[in-house]
Each structure stands twice: as C-alpha cells, then as structure tokens.
From TrEMBL, chain A:
<feature type="region of interest" description="Disordered">
    <location>
        <begin position="30"/>
        <end position="50"/>
    </location>
</feature>
<comment type="similarity">
    <text>Belongs to the PREY family.</text>
</comment>
<protein>
    <recommendedName>
        <fullName>Protein preY, mitochondrial</fullName>
    </recommendedName>
</protein>
<feature type="compositionally biased region" description="Low complexity">
    <location>
        <begin position="40"/>
        <end position="50"/>
    </location>
</feature>
<dbReference type="Pfam" id="PF03966">
    <property type="entry name" value="Trm112p"/>
</dbReference>
<dbReference type="InterPro" id="IPR005651">
    <property type="entry name" value="Trm112-like"/>
</dbReference>
From TrEMBL, chain B:
<feature type="binding site">
    <location>
        <position position="107"/>
    </location>
    <ligand>
        <name>S-adenosyl-L-methionine</name>
    </ligand>
</feature>
<dbReference type="InterPro" id="IPR004033">
    <property type="entry name" value="UbiE/COQ5_MeTrFase"/>
</dbReference>
<feature type="binding site">
    <location>
        <begin position="190"/>
        <end position="191"/>
    </location>
    <ligand>
        <name>S-adenosyl-L-methionine</name>
    </ligand>
</feature>
<keyword id="KW-0949">S-adenosyl-L-methionine</keyword>
<comment type="function">
    <text>Methyltransferase required for the conversion of 2-decaprenyl-6-methoxy-1,4-benzoquinol (DDMQH2) to 2-decaprenyl-3-methyl-6-methoxy-1,4-benzoquinol (DMQH2).</text>
</comment>
<comment type="pathway">
    <text>Cofactor biosynthesis; ubiquinone biosynthesis.</text>
</comment>
<keyword id="KW-0808">Transferase</keyword>
<dbReference type="Pfam" id="PF01209">
    <property type="entry name" value="Ubie_methyltran"/>
</dbReference>
<dbReference type="GO" id="GO:0032259">
    <property type="term" value="P:methylation"/>
</dbReference>
C-alpha cells in the first residue's frame, strides 16, 4: 500500500525526466553537430590534445611517458612499440585499443619525417 | 480501489518473501565468490563468473545504459544522488589550483561539480582580495579583473577517466551542452592500470565506480601511485545499511522497484538487477577502510550517508 504513492511519484518523475530530455534534445543535437564541425576544423588547425594532459599521460603498461604523433593522432610508446589512438579528442589508453607498431614501420618512420 | 490495494499488498508481501529468498541466496553466492577469489573467479551481482567475464559484463551493462544513465539516477534515487554528490564535493573542498582525477566519472557529474565549486571558491578569493585592498586604483582593479577572466579556475584541472567509451561520449556531449570546456579533459582508461605518471594529482575521486572494478586492491594501488604526496583519495559508494528499519525498506525498494524502473526507462532489467545485486556483494565500510590502509593510505576514515546506503571513504598519501 505504501508502494503505490511512491510508484506514482516515480512515474511522475520519470515522465518529467522524459519531457526534459525531449526538450533538451534539439539543443544538444545542435551542439553535437557544431561540435562535429568544430572537431573537423580543430584537427586541421590545432592539435586536439591538451599539452598539459600530454605531460601527465603515461603508458598504462610501462608507466613511461609517451610521444604525441600529430599526423596519425596517436600516443606512442617507442620502447614497447605500441600506439594508443586519440579518437574524437579522447586518448584511448587501454592495451586492447592500442596498435602494435611493426619493426618495419618503426624503421620507416624516421625516413618519412 | 480496495481490490487494487489488495492486489498491491499481495504483490508487496509476495515481494518480501521472494526478496528474502533472493537475499539469502545472494549472500551464499557472494560468500562463495569471495572464497573463490584465489582461482580467479569473482562475482557479477549474485552470479559467480570468471574475472575476465566480469569486466566484459560490466562493460556491456554501462554501454547499454549510458544514454539513460542520468535519467535513471534521478528516478531511482528520487534525485538524492545529487545531494550525495554535493556533500562529496563539500568534503573534498577543493581550492583553486587543485588537480583532480575522477575515475569512472563517465558522465561528468563529479567533474562539473568540481569546476563549479572551484570557480565559486576563486570568486570568493578575489572578492576577499579586493576587500583587503580598498585603496586600489582603477587601473589595478581592471587589471585584477582581466587576470581573473583568464584564471577563473586558478589553474585547476580535472581529468575524467572511464573505461567505457559510451559513458565518456555521453559525458563529453553533456559538457558541450552545459558549456564546460576549460580545465576539463577526457581519457579512456582502466582504473586498475591508470595511464598517468606517478605523483600527478592532488585528489583522486571515484564515485559509484569502485564496486564495478574487478580487482579493487589494484585500483587502490594505482590511486596511491598517481596521487602526489599529501594527496587525498575520496570514494563515494553504496555501502551497508546499519539501521534495520531502513534496511528492510531499502531492500524492498531495491529488489522490487529498481529493476522495474530499469526496464521501463532504460529498457534493461538485467542491468539494474546487477546494480542492486552488486551493492549487496560489495565490501562493508570497515572492509574497504582496511583495504585502503593495506595499500598505504593514512588517516583513513569513512562517513555514512542515509544510514549507510552510501558511504564516503577518505584517505591520504602522506
């Protein structure tokens, strides 16, 4: 019996939440679109990674500092030969997301630069 | 009306019985899970699964509910989670310049509160400064205000680290909608293998996250490593209720209402069934305190909120 008013209150809160979410959606969708466009421009014009963040980021495996490779938008651990991708400005710092850099690539890289 | 009440009371009574059975069953499984830790098995709610499986299952849960996570938090707790998080921030009491790492903070609830708090602290500081320097010239005052615009956070920065891509995506979108950009970074990372240098942060927070970590001791060790000497560890997490009346009402609500809400709002009964089960399987206040002390944290203490529905644990790296 006690549960009834509480449930009614909950459904009210839920309906209100949904309304708010619906009202917020067009604005957020616009913000996302803008962000998408800004993100594209950002990648071309300025580095998407905050230098302050680069200073504190480390390889989760070796805990050593990383090199930021702007052309591929990756954070590279030279010692272990692993590259962590930066996707939409978010560094993906887990080994499952990382890419192994083959020895051939490593040799080629200095030639390219 | 009377019929509906009778149905409702039957439903509640049946619920109580089911729940008692469920709790007994759950406790057995949980204790089994604890003993089985040596052969790399752990608990996922009331199920016993391999450690690898737990990571995957937790990931799936949060991937599925990411978009509805905030609405669910509001409706399940009737908005009380906001008060708990505000109390958490007041306990942290960060001053301008504080470097914060918020682990498992995907949707940014703690990070946004931190930025607001630091900004208001900074404004207070400037007002105080102006009050003590009454004889400043206009030039000095405008200079001070200009400086202030650039440093409204006084150099504070918060890094939100979460293992779940979807949760981070929701958080980042939310930050853009709400207009937070300065002093905020997002990193995908594992609490057990933090991708940060040693001694990097003044405060480490984990709010409603540590329960979902497979090896809590590893997460605590990593927290200790990335904190600067003098840094503070703060954890906000569901805990164990110490009042029998609150406890029975809370159990009833948890097992009978929350999964239903999960199904109705987020379309995911299992995710919210996991939520309530994982809370029952989580360490008690004293157990978590001991674990923190084992890792090396000092001056470890905890504070119960809502008779222990949640607890805030605090410890220092000295």
């Amino acid at each position: 019996m006690l549960a009834l008013p509480r449930l009614r209150l909950l459904t009210w809160a839920w309906r209100r939440g949904n309304l708010q979410a619906a009202a917020g959606r067009p604005f957020c969708a616009a913000a996302q679109e803008e962000d998408g466009r800004a993100g594209q421009g950002q990648q071309q014009q300025r580095p998407p990674l905050d230098p302050g963040l680069l200073e504190i980021l480390a390889c989760p495996l070796s805990k050593k500092s990383l090199r930021y490779e702007e052309s591929t938008s990756e954070l590279i651990n030279e010692e272990l030969g692993i590259a962590y991708p930066i996707i939409d400005g978010i560094p993906h710092m887990i080994p499952q997301a990382a890419r192994m850099i083959g020895k051939e690539n490593q040799e080629k890289e200095p030639e390219q630069t | 009306m009377a019929a509906s009440m009778a149905v409702a009371s039957c439903w509640v009574l049946r619920g109580c019985r089911d729940q008692r059975l469920l709790l007994g069953w759950g406790r057995r499984l949980c204790s089994g899970g604890g003993r089985a830790a040596a052969d790399a098995r752990t608990h996922f709610g009331f199920q016993t699964v391999s450690e690898e499986e737990k990571g995957e299952k937790v990931y799936q849960v949060f991937e599925n509910v990411a978009k509805k996570y905030d609405i669910m938090n509001d409706s399940m707790s009737l908005g009380i989670h906001r008060i708990w998080k505000d109390i958490f921030l007041h306990q942290m009491n960060p001053c301008p310049g504080t470097q914060l790492l918020d682990v498992a903070g995907g949707t940014g609830d703690i990070a946004f509160r931190f930025l607001n708090y630091v900004r208001s602290q900074r404004e207070h500081q400037v007002r105080q400064q102006l009050r003590t320097h009454q004889n400043l010239s206009w030039q000095e005052i405008t200079k001070l205000y200009q400086e202030e615009e650039h440093k409204s956070l006084g150099g504070s920065h918060v890094v939100v680290c979460d293992i779940n891509k979807e949760m981070l995506k929701v958080g980042k979108q939310k930050s853009q909608c709400l207009g937070y950009s300065e002093g905020l970074s997002w990193v995908l990372g594992n609490a057990e293998e933090l991708p940060f240098n040693n001694d990097s942060f003044d405060v480490y927070t984990i709010a409603f996250g540590i329960r979902n970590v497979t090896h809590i001791d590893h997460a605590l060790q990593e927290a200790y490593r990335v904190l600067k000497p003098g840094g503070r560890f703060l954890c906000l997490e569901f805990s164990h209720v110490n009042n029998s009346l609150v406890s029975s009402l809370y159990d009833l609500y948890s097992f009978q209402v929350i999964p239903v809400l999960g199904e109705v709002i987020a379309g995911d009964w299992k995710a919210y069934q996991y939520l309530v089960e994982s809370i029952r399987c989580f360490l008690t206040q004293e157990e978590l305190k001991e674990l923190m002390e084992d890792v090396g944290f000092l001056k470890v203490e905890y504070r119960n909120l809502g008779s222990g529905i949640v607890a805030i644990h605090s410890g220092f790296k000295l």
